[in-house]
Design goal:
Elements (H helix, E strand, L loop, with lengths): L1 H18 L1 H21 L7 E7 L4 H10 L5 E6 L3 H10 L4 E5 L3 H6 L4 E8 L3 H22 L4 H5 L1 E8 L6 H32 L1 H6 L5 H29 L8 H25 L3 H17 L12 H6 L4 H15 L3 H29 L1
Parallel strand pairs: 1-2, 1-3, 4-5
Antiparallel strand pairs: 3-4
Length: about 375
């Protein structure tokens, strides 16, 4: 009997959503057209990039170069490594944005007036950050040559960085923006669909009719949140097709993507339920939804880089599920990262989603 009521509620919600042409258009628009439009239109600048250094030389010249690279607000020395293998794990986790490798004979070649090369690896999963990082390193090594070694033979020799960009070698900005729009589209749908569906029941008076039936509060809650989650998970696949057409490679596991997306959608749906419990009309629900969506969007790192935000605002981004999901899909698609590298973001998504989902259930049960 209980299972039959629950199945009936879920089937009813699916039927209502799929019969509504506005909802179907919204799903299509957000997961396809808007992904393409916003991907092509947005861009940003960066600062406070996290720099890793591998100094095989340990000379006065190599230390002066590191000081030059970190003298402004462009780079912050994040860590020093002993090998590229050690630095690679930090690059894959997104802990550093660029790594500079100084060869063992760097100081000697500079002193002898011979050309010296630097190894530079840039994380290209965020093309805008990577292009800026590469340009800054080239500019600062030139400044190092002019200012630190003025008048010496090294001035004629110069320093020639050899830059390699990993994960996105042609620095195509559309890849990162497309992945950001994948997350934003799913988040907006998962907030709006349950909020609109529940408020519509209030406006039509059907919620009062349901209250006099044998349906329990938890059955109605499950019936309301299950279809939006399933529909948003399903909308992931047309977006994946759009990403493929935009040239975004899928280097990670689809199973990992679906699991992370499910954690992410739970937090979004819980916001939608919360909005429905505090509003009584569709207009109120839509306005309230966007009131919460935009701050989370700005804190996600997809509109403006987190590295350029004030320190207190960077800390606030940790509570944005959008930030963790965007960083997860960026690592999964472009770097081929698996759950071994993405587990901190998975835990963060679970830590954000669980209390939000519990709070939305408690508010829903109280109103019921």
């Amino acid at each position: 009997m209980v299972r039959g009521r629950l199945y009936g509620l879920i089937a009813k919600e699916f039927a209502q959503m799929l019969r509504d042409p506005v909802v179907l258009f919204l799903i299509f628009w957000l997961t396809t057209v808007e992904v393409v439009m916003c991907t092509m239109a947005l861009g940003f600048d960066v600062k406070d990039l996290k720099l890793g250094v591998i100094d095989h030389d340990r000379s006065a010249a190599s230390r002066a170069l590191v000081r030059e690279l970190t003298s402004a607000d462009t780079f912050v020395l994040h860590d020093e490594f002993t090998s590229m293998r050690q630095a690679e794990s930090q690059l894959q986790r997104g802990a550093v944005d660029a790594v500079v490798e100084v060869p063992p004979d760097f100081g000697a070649r500079i002193a002898a007036g011979r050309r010296a090369s630097l190894g530079v690896v840039v994380d290209g999963s965020n093309a805008n950050v990577a292009s800026r990082a590469r340009a800054y390193i080239v500019e600062m090594t030139a400044s190092f040559t002019r200012e630190q070694l003025m008048g010496s033979m090294a001035m004629r020799a110069g320093v020639q960085p050899v830059v390699r960009v990993w994960y996105n070698p042609d620095l195509t900005n559309t890849r990162f923006m497309a992945l950001g729009m994948l997350a934003q589209a799913g988040f907006m749908l998962a907030v709006i669909l349950p909020a609109a569906g529940m408020v519509r029941e209030k406006q039509n008076g059907t919620l009062e009719q349901i209250r006099v039936t044998p349906i329990r509060a938890h059955e109605l809650f499950i019936g309301k949140v299950t279809p939006p989650i399933v529909i948003c998970l399903g909308s992931l696949f047309p977006t994946l097709l759009v990403l493929r057409l935009l040239g975004v490679p899928m280097n990670g596991s689809l199973t990992t993507l679906i699991g992370l997306d499910l954690l992410f959608l739970l937090s979004a749906v819980s916001i939608g339920v919360f909005v429905a419990t505090i509003t009584t009309t569709l207009q109120q629900a839509m306005l309230t939804s966007f009131f919460g969506l935009f701050p989370l969007l700005f804190l996600s790192g997809s509109i403006a880089p987190i590295e350029s935000m004030p320190a207190w605002l960077q800390l606030a981004t940790e509570i944005s599920p959008l930030r963790h999901f965007i960083e997860s899909v960026s690592g999964l698609f472009l770097k081929g990262a698996g759950i071994g590298e993405l587990w901190p973001h998975a835990i963060a998504l679970a830590a954000i989603s669980a209390p939000m989902f519990l709070t939305s259930w408690l508010l829903f049960r109280r109103q019921w």
